[in-house]
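#help-structures
NK: newbie question, is this the right format to request a structure? protein is Solute carrier family 35 member F2
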Amino acid sequence: HILKTIALGQMLSLCICGTAITSQYLTEKYNVNTPMFQSFLNYCALFLIYTLMLAFRPGGDNLLDILRRKWWKYILLGLADVEANYLIVRAYQYTTLTSVQLLDCFGIPVLMALSWFILRARYRVIHFVAVFVCLLGVGTMVGADILAGREDNSGSDVLLGDILVLLGASLYAVSNVCEEYIVKKLTRLEFLGMLGLFGTIISGIQLLIVEYKDMASIHWNWKIALLFVAFALCMFCLYSFMPLVMKVTSATSVNLGILTADLYSLFFGLFLFGYKFSVLYLVSFTVIMLGFVLYCSTPTRTAAPAESTSVPQVTSIGIDNLGLKLEESGLPETQSAVL
């Protein structure tokens, strides 16, 4: 189960790496900087696949029924997701790479706090130790960046950039907690379908407001178009697979697993962009993976609601790292099958 969780997490990291590489190519080779348009392409793909599937789903729980009951909730979710993507990318224009990499980790404690209160997740000491180890690995990666000379831009407005990173990381945490709740309590199709609908609307409006001139100045050719398609494909795969991973793990473990995405980008950058190699990158990767394994090795639990204190113990077992929970609890086969 742990190996499967690690493999799924690294698959997500590779998807994020693909988005980073294509974005950097667009920026450095063709001077194209359109983060909102790139996000808009992803939301359009989600709309064309999952929103239409939700619209034609038989039964009462289809698109119209969900809109009638929960439209305002999914507007807030779409807004959080769109702005999280935008704020993090925009922060690079104002602050340093080091600040973005370090402050982006602020989303992990925010995510754990939200999971504690909203999803009723209960952590053990080893989980906090594991998070600390992962963040130590991120610090090692930042140190390697500085030694390798990647920290060249001092930033035009560091304070504004840092605030944007913190806001973006917090919105990511909100989006991820909502995603975990929906895919575990409701369905993956509902989450992706509604996010595709409102993400397309919100990002489309914002695209017309903030990036109209940037879009008009692009000198289109087949290479630029191919990079946009590659970015959208990587992002679509990330959004499609992440709910599947969260269903068997949790939002926190997913976010710890994808900390290696920057390292994959750096490894590819050695060949594509001429980055300088540092052995600290390997040390950082090892430390992050060690913390990730520590986190996944011990299951969290989900606290039972106050009104359910008399329910048998099986109901108090959470669904994060489900395979480990079944093994640890020693439940009879019939109870395990029901769970």
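mod (FA): yep, format's fine, and the tokens are attached above. Residues 308-320, 322-339 have pLDDT under 50 and may be disordered.
NK: thank you!
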